C-alpha cells in the first residue's frame, strides 16, 4: 500500500535541505495506480517554530477538469497541481494532495467531434504539405516497410484522407476512454483516501485529532468533488468517519468549480422573498427551485431548505446579485460537462443548487478576479462569491477572498500565500477559542 520514500527525500526532511518539498507518495487502494494515490508535502523545518502551536494539516483534492484515465492527461495535470501543496507547505503546514480517477472525453459530444475534426484537418494539411514539398518519400518508405502498402496505391484524395482520419480519431477516443471513471467513482476515491489517512495518521505523522482537526477542500474541479462529498453525510457514515462538522476545522476552496448548471433564476427567487413570506414557511415547506426542473428534490432536502429560509430574510446582497447580470455563454459550460460525462451529465451534482446541505463549518473561498484571463466563457463554473453569500444566509460562517490572478497561475502565486496565511490564523484562533 505504501510507496517507498526515496532515501534522498528522507534525508532532505531530516536535514532541512532544499529537497524538503519533495512529496511522499502513498497509494490508498490495493490497485497501486497513480490516479488513486496521494502526496504528502512536509514543510521545511525552519518554517514553523517548535514552541508554537501545531499548524493544521491541509488536505486538498486536486483539479484536472475531472479528466484523467490516460497518462497523456493526468501527467500534465499532476505537474500543474503540485504547485498548490508546495505553496501550502512553505507556510509551515503539512499538505496532503489527493488524486482520484478521471473521466475521458466522450465521442458523443459536439465539442469532442469538433476537436477531432480540427485535428484531422491539421493532419491532412500537414500531409498535403509533405506531398507538395516532395518530403513524402520518407513517409512512403515507412508505410511500405511497416504496412506493406505503397502510399500511391491508396486512392485517397483530400476529402477521403480527412474522413478517414476523422473516423480513426473518433475510434481512438472511444477506445481510450474505455474504463474511465464515473463521478460516483471520483467521490468514492476521495472518501477512500480520507479513510486511508485516518487509519494511518500516526504512521504518516499527521497531527489530526478532535483537538487538532484538519482543513479540507480542493481546487478547480477538485473543489467540486470535495464540495459534493461534504454535502453527503452518508458517504462519511458508511466509512465510519466523523461527519465534516466534527472532522474538519474549515473547508477551503481555491478557484473551485461550484456550479455545473445555471443558477441565476434560483438566486433571483431567493433574493425576492420577503420577510413575511419567509416567516410563513415551515421546515417542511419546499424551497424555491434549487435546481433545474429536471433535477428532483427529496423531502429531507426540501425540509432542510425550509429551515435555511427561516434563518435569514435575504440571501443575496444587491452587489452580488449584480454578478448574475453577466452574460456568460452557458452553452459552453453545458457542452464541456457533456463532453466529459456524456449521457450522465444531467445527473452531475451542482453544489450551489444544494448549498443548504453544506456542513456547518467555516468556509473559505479563494477566487480569481480573472479566472479565464478576463474572458467570461466559464463564469458559470466559478460562482464562489454567490455561493459564499448563500451560506451566510443560512448562518454558516463563510468568507470570500478575491485575488489578482487567473485560474492557471493562482496555485503558485504570492496572493494565494497571503490568503492562506489569513486562513491559518483564523483556524488557530478558533482552536484557541474552543480550548478556552
How would you explain this protein's 3D organization?
Strand 7, helix 17 (384-393) and strand 8 (398-403) form a beta-alpha-beta unit. Helix 4 packs across helix 6 and helix 7 packs across helix 9. The radius of gyration is 25 Å and the shape is globular. Helices cover 44% and strands 10% of the residues. The longest helix is centred in the N-terminal third of the chain and has 23 residues, at 110-132. It has 18 helices and eight strands.
Label the overall shape.
Answer: globular
Order of strands in the sheet with the most strands? 1-2-4-3-5-6-7-8
Low-pLDDT residue intervals, each spanning 5 or more residues: 1-18, 274-313
State the separation between the terminal residues, measured CA to CA: 40 Å
- Let me know the average pLDDT: 79
The SS-based structural class is alpha/beta
The sequence of SSEs as H and E is HEEEHHEHHHHHEHHHEHHHHHEHEH
Helix content: 40-55%
Radius of gyration: 25 Å
Major sheet: size, sense and barrel closure? 8 strands, mixed
Strand content: 5-15%
Contiguous helical run count? 18
Q: How many strand units? A: 8
